[in-house]
Every structure is written in C-alpha cells, then in structure tokens.
Amino acid sequence: MAPLDLDKYVEIARLCKYLPENDLKVSPAGTGALLAGLAPSGCGAPADPPFLSPRDPRRHPVRLHFIFSFLQRLCDYVCDLLLEESNVQPVSTPVTVCGDIHGQFYDLCELFRTGGQVPDTNYIFMGDFVDRGYYSLETFTYLLALKAKWPDRITLLRGNHESRQITQVYGFYDECQTKYGNANAWRYCTKVFDMLTVAALIDEQILCVHGGLSPDIKTLDQIRTIERNQEIPHKGAFCDLVWSDPEDVDTWAISPRGAGWLFGAKVTNEFVHINNLKLICRAHQLVHEGYKFMFDEKLVTVWSAPNYCYRCGNIASIMVFKDVNTREPKLFRAVPDSERVIPPRTTTPYFL
C-alpha cells in the first residue's frame, strides 16, 4: 500500500466546502465509480483523482468528502500516533490552547487565522470537536490531517462529545450517515475518539483537560493510570475529567448535567498545590466573553466556538502561552454568514 500523501490530505481538508445535493447529480463521464457513495457536501481540492469535480474538473475544485478508504487510512494512521501518547501528554511553550469547536468548520479556519497556521503555531485542542455544528466531519478530519502531518505541533484531547453515545444523539452520527450513506465513517472516527489523550501538561506547570477535576483523582499520576482506550464511562475518574465543571461551591456538589461533578475553589487549590501547578485550563462551558478565570486565577475556561450553535452571539477565544508566566487571550468572532454556507438541518436543543 502506498504511503499517505499527507500534504494532499491537509490541503483537501482545509478547502472543505458545502455542495448542495442537486449539484452532485451531474457528473463528468468516467467519474461515476469515484462518485458512488460520496456525500452531497465535503472537501474541496485540486481536480486530480481520486478527488474529481462532480461538474467540470477543468474549472471547479473538488467538493467531495474523502473517499471512505482514504478516511479509513487517515484514522488508522492517527490512531497509531495517538497510541504513543501519554494520558497526560507533555507539551512545551510556546503553545496556544483552544476550547470547544463543535463542528463549526468555518470558525475553526478563523481560529487558525487568529492564532496562526500549523505548523507555525503549536496547538492544544481540549476536545468537543464534533456535534452541534454543521461540519463535524470536516472539522474532525481537518484536525486529524493536521495531526497526521505535524504530530508534535498539535495535541488533541478528548471531550465528552468524543463518545459513541453522545454523538448518536447530538448530530455527528447522523451527519456521517447523511454524507456517506452509512455509519462506517462514524465507526472509524469513534476508534480515534478512544485513542485521544485525556490531558496535556504544559512545561509541567499548566494542566489542560476538557472538563475538570474528580474526587477520585488527587495526583497527575492517577490520571496517567486511566485506561483511556474505551467508551467514556458513565461515572468515575475518566468520566469526571471530561464532564465536571467549576462552580461557587466549597468542595464537591452534584452536577446538573447528570455526569461529572461541580467542584469549587478549595479542591482546585489543593489539586494545584499537590501537583505543583500554576493553572488548570479547561473548556466544556460556553463563556460569552470567550474566556473566564476563576479561583484566584488558578483555573481558566477557554471557549473557541463563536456564535455557538449559530445563535448564541458569543465571542470565542484562544489562550496563547509564551511561557508559563506569560499568557495572552486572543478573541475572535464568527465568520459572517456571507462567508459560509449553512445547509438545512434540524437541531436538538442542547448546550452541554
């Protein structure tokens, strides 16, 4: 089998565009086999096989998804890379930390315009790549292509939405069914979910995790011993790390989400002290201002999906760390509607 052409994968994923279904019904002679089973929206690229334009390959860029066999190879390739990563993956400064993306592909591109392109900028993404937005598949495959090409320049953490159960309810499963005609693409992506690391540690002093703390976790070494290659459990340490939220409580309180915990300043300060940390970075909660510090600036929530669900009107942010003592939030707004195409879709009211 020929090696992956990672440059092509990155370029195809980067140029992803939506194509209405009726535009796929006219295809140039000889492309029928290549077009069979492909989606009515997807990724743009130069018109060379196996990415051919459904109209005129001489004039139009490709607007199709990765052929399934290519997506399969990309997922397998990234799984092999992730297998070598620790549950608490070490990362060095300078680095830019990002929160939830939720399938907002055009806004992910705006994030890169704000923070810099890979590999010029080193990134940590703290999970929730999929669900809610219109382009979860394109968002996730773009990040996978970047990870495949520059594995040391982009770190992908697992969020509570990188889950079979959650994605079957909140959009990603249905999106894969619509775009590929079956669930095979979703199944391969969920294999990658299981391999995603749980946390990142910046210069041994800043912990990045999707959700928050757990009453079952006192030290970073306890995170390192979690068996992460599985569906996220309904309770326990692994569940808490991707589901918990900071709140104005003394220690621990029951979470209204039905999973994870609410945790307060006291347990945060204890965890930071025991593990010699300066800061905990997390995502998981919409912040209308883009980011929010809590607990005497021992914890920060970073949110990177502007105008969440295309209606919340919030600003998004990324957090740039030049070193552990020098941080700078960068704010950005959603791409204007005139610069995106929004396909018709029924959404489920859900803001976790």
Q: Summary?
A:
With 352 residues, the protein is of the alpha/beta class. It is built from 11 helices and 14 strands. It has a 6-stranded mixed beta sheet. The protein has a 5-stranded mixed beta sheet with strand order 4-3-2-13-14.
Can you walk through the features of this model?
The chain has 352 residues and is α/β, with parallel strands linked by helices. The protein has two domains: 1-65, no CATH class; 87-339, Metallo-dependent phosphatases (Purple Acid Phosphatase, chain A, domain 2, 4-Layer Sandwich). The chain has eleven helices and 14 strands. Strands 1-5-6-10-12-11 form a six-stranded mixed sheet. This is Serine/threonine-protein phosphatase.
Write the layout of secondary structure elements.
Blueprint: H1 6-14, H2 32-35, H3 68-83, E1 88-91, E2 95-98, H4 105-115, E3 123-125, H5 136-149, E4 154-156, H6 164-167, H7 172-180, H8 184-195, E5 199-202, E6 206-209, H9 220-224, H10 237-243, E7 245-246, E8 252-254, E9 261-263, H11 265-274, E10 279-282, E11 291-294, E12 299-302, E13 316-323, E14 326-332
Parallel strand pairs: 1-5, 2-3, 3-4, 6-10, 7-9, 10-12
Antiparallel strand pairs: 2-13, 5-6, 8-9, 11-12, 13-14
Helix pairs in contact: 1-5, 3-5, 3-8
Structure keywords:
single chain, 352 residues, alpha/beta, Purple Acid Phosphatase, chain A, domain 2, 2 domains, 6-stranded mixed sheet, 5-stranded mixed sheet, 11 helices, 29% helix, 16% strand, globular, disordered C terminus
